[in-house]
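Case study B.
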Amino acid sequence: MHDIGFIRDLAIVMLVAGAATLIFHRLRQPALLGYILVGVLIGPHTPGPLVADPRTINDISNLGVVLLMFTLGLEFSVRKLRSVGAGVLVAAVAEVGLMLWFGYSLGEWLGWSRIDALFLAAMVALSSTMVASRMLAEGKLRHQPFARLVVGVLVAEDVMAVVLLTVLTAVALGGTVAADAISVVWHLGLFVVVGLILGLLLLPRLVDHVAGYGRDEVLLICVLGICFGACLLAASMGFSVALGAFLAGAVVAESRSSGRVVHLVEPLRDMFAALFFVAIGLKIDPAMLYHYIGPALIIAVVVVLGKTFAVSLGVFLTGHDARTSMRTGLSMAQIGEFSFVMATLGVSLGVVSDFIYPVAVAVSVLCMAMSPYLVRSADRIVDGMSRVVPRPMRSLARSYSEWLENLRPVDENAVIAAMFRRFLWHIGVNIALVVTLFVIGAYVNAHNWRFFSQFGIDRDTRHSVIWACALFLSLPMLIAVYRKSDALGMLLAELGIRERFAGQYTFAIRNVLARIIPLLTLVALALLVVALSSAILPPRGVALMLIVAGVLAALVLWRGLVRLHARLQAALKDTLSPDGPTALPSKSTEKQDGAGAS
Amino acid sequence: MHDIGFIRDLAIVMLVAGAATLIFHRLRQPALLGYILVGVLIGPHTPGPLVADPRTINDISNLGVVLLMFTLGLEFSVRKLRSVGAGVLVAAVAEVGLMLWFGYSLGEWLGWSRIDALFLAAMVALSSTMVASRMLAEGKLRHQPFARLVVGVLVAEDVMAVVLLTVLTAVALGGTVAADAISVVWHLGLFVVVGLILGLLLLPRLVDHVAGYGRDEVLLICVLGICFGACLLAASMGFSVALGAFLAGAVVAESRSSGRVVHLVEPLRDMFAALFFVAIGLKIDPAMLYHYIGPALIIAVVVVLGKTFAVSLGVFLTGHDARTSMRTGLSMAQIGEFSFVMATLGVSLGVVSDFIYPVAVAVSVLCMAMSPYLVRSADRIVDGMSRVVPRPMRSLARSYSEWLENLRPVDENAVIAAMFRRFLWHIGVNIALVVTLFVIGAYVNAHNWRFFSQFGIDRDTRHSVIWACALFLSLPMLIAVYRKSDALGMLLAELGIRERFAGQYTFAIRNVLARIIPLLTLVALALLVVALSSAILPPRGVALMLIVAGVLAALVLWRGLVRLHARLQAALKDTLSPDGPTALPSKSTEKQDGAGAS
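Model:
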């Protein structure tokens, strides 16, 4: 109790944060800006340092990132991503890609090293979820059509942030961009898919069960346990803790009580986010900022113009009118928390130059300070633009919009497209499950071999046992894939071979096509299983015998396995169904707003 | 991001805490018990230590105490304390006094040093607010008559905990118990009164204003700023941060939005409380526990029997029936968070022996584990007791209850007693305000003399200026005291001198009495002012002139000052009025339940 050095530092931070949030709320500026500035003021670099030892503050401010990513995950959810639509996803990918290219080129133009330019690219690519969604809420713009787009693009960007973090880590730890990026994305994808599927099967039920106790503190501590447990798991696999927290949030979001969880976690997120941003300010030496004000200003201009342009273009190309696109772009013309996370990553890995961190902060502060004005004068900017843009370009834009509108499937085609998508989705999920099983098998094989050798099991037997388990557990999924592809084949045959083309052969050709597709699927599945099991393939004889046994089992138990799969599918579907969990529509809007708390 | 040593430790702690809360909820045991036990399990003293560096965890677990005391303060409130009634306060003081005596005697009997015995006394004196109120909530006993008593005694104990903490610090830092205790209690009382009055005038308005923004995160960060600011203030004055947090909570509790504040702060409290209790476990070496199991068992027995007896006796003596008293006692037969706070204080001051901390933990764990069984079988225990107790004692108890019942003022007397109390309360508050002003004067004099000397103001002039300010600012309050005591004198005269006793002299005697009381008050006030201003008394000539000026000002401005005081009083009353803030009755029960979250 009397060793209050840390508590004193924290108390000072919270006191100035409280003052900052009040003052910046009155000034109608983002609170984040206030946190960073008071951080600089009380930091060790300014005369009369108030915070003596920023180390511990820095330590616990990292909790801010974990809780931030967790709540972002809570607001992201497979359901919401589906409702946002594929268009927004495409727009976000295009926009982030463009910004990455801008950033990298800018870094090269400034004469920075390759790795500095790479981190600059990552820093300018992602908008600030906190700032953008806060401004929507404060400007009472939440129900405008573009607000939905902003939230959608932000969610998609959050996912890409996780990918970028992981890729950057791998690149920074040595190796070429291309090869590493592919390997990392492959591993990452695997981790995410395995984590999501296992998590979705277990955790939402657990959370709902705990929520049934009716004790907020039990629910909170359990959810935090899940969040930090996922962080541990991700870290032990070599991924960032942010990824773990994000996945944990996305999984918990599928529980019926996710609204209550958001409510409980938000105060924690707000407190640690404040700490996080003050800690950013604490690290800043104003002299350093002054030194690099030139590049910072250039980068800030590139961010504001580039982001507005890239987002507007992405949104426009995926079929929205020019005004909506511009407003979406202007709302996202800033960088924020992710830039700090990226810069911190570079610094802690020791790969980027010293000036990257202060430049990142300076650019973010400049963009954040500009952001409210951009959003407030969006209408005027759009009007001004439309007067400046030459007439041919405008008519080109209009005809593009019309062409896109015509492309949309209508009536019967829309129904068939929906069926088609559903079949592909089912096949994808089942293949992902099979991959999961074999990956778990490979993992068990690689890590627990001492356990097996304890029982005198040699390498071959071990391989055979694990492979057999994976194969037999995959049977329901494999059968499901076969059945779905059968149905898909028939659908395709029906659609693809119209009577007017094939005439009298219609029926025969349809029949062949309907057979060929499941047959091809079978071959593809066999190849997949072999490829997956390369690490744990038993001796050839055993493998053959096991395959025969598997096929026999599949034939004999066909009905049972189909039923088993139906039950599994129902369990998963129950968790993901749009009208099942969360229930209240008001809850989901509430969750969207929550995205912007800081 | 990659330096995740601390996050890894924290993640492990939160993961096991989540598991513990689930398991112990199923076992119907207090979660605190689970936290402590898993803390021991993952601590550095057990084989296979999981938490590598408990230092940072320990650092931030201290936040648990701050937030705990803050929420206790939020649930305590002047209003609630008044509704609990003076009887409960008397019962709590009697009970804690008895337990302090038991604890000290036990320490001496065990052959411990004086200071060890003193800390033991403090450790066993206070029940666990978390455990007791949690059990009430879980056993659905909240609406039983004794539950109100338990909550009342717990609130009173919380206040005494603050006093004990401060007294123990002073005693431990050298000096005798008696002299130091008095000086500490005096300073403490002054700090509390000054803090409460200034706080009550400013902070509830500020909080309500901020709450009006309708942004939870702004409100939360502001309230945390207030809480930690009060901690800083208390620490800089030499008091514990716990006291600052408690006072901040008590002040914020008077705002209209205290319900929302409780809601926002609770998740933080729950998370840090979990950390706090796991950190307690982390510090425990099971070998040490085993070594001191004998004393721990003896102390645990004394706590359970002593607490039950002391609380039951206190409650019974203040006029409740035997069954209610026993149930109240059984609900409070445990020690908890305060014991750890006291033990930690002793350890960090370096004054107690090494074994105190593990003994405190062992005793608390034993008591907490026993507590649910005691509460659940309270009825059977009471029945058993009533069969064992000899008949004469029972009839004695009954006649005591009846006698007490007869003492209560009824009808006309009740109204007069209420008026009487109100006058005394007003006089007390006004005198407190006067004291506050002079204390601020003394503080300004002691700390800011460099500021004065800058302007070439010498010691005498400084004293004169400060004293004059304090005196003139006190005038409205002094006049108010005089007027109230005038009214009190008339009331007393009317009541005290009944016609049947004084006969024909009734009127004359009444007149004398009604004059004497305000006159005595004036003299007392003059003495008070002189005593208060001993540090800043100006030279005699100046003082006399100032007094004359003051009296003249009082006479001339009498009406204006009365009006000014009325306005001040209205401002304070508005903050404290029972039907003003908080408004909804359901809110206040909600706040009571909140007391028990962990």
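Residues 578-598 of chain B have pLDDT under 50 and may be disordered. The remaining cases will be described in the next quarterly update.
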